[in-house]
Amino acid sequence: MPRSNRPRGRHNGPRDEEPDGLERLLSGWRRTETRRGVEWNVQPVSAAQAQKSYVCPGCSRDIPPGVAHLVIWRADGVLGDAADLAARRHWHESCWRIV
Question: Minimal CA–CA distance to 96: which of 54, 56, 51?
Answer without folding.
Answer: 56
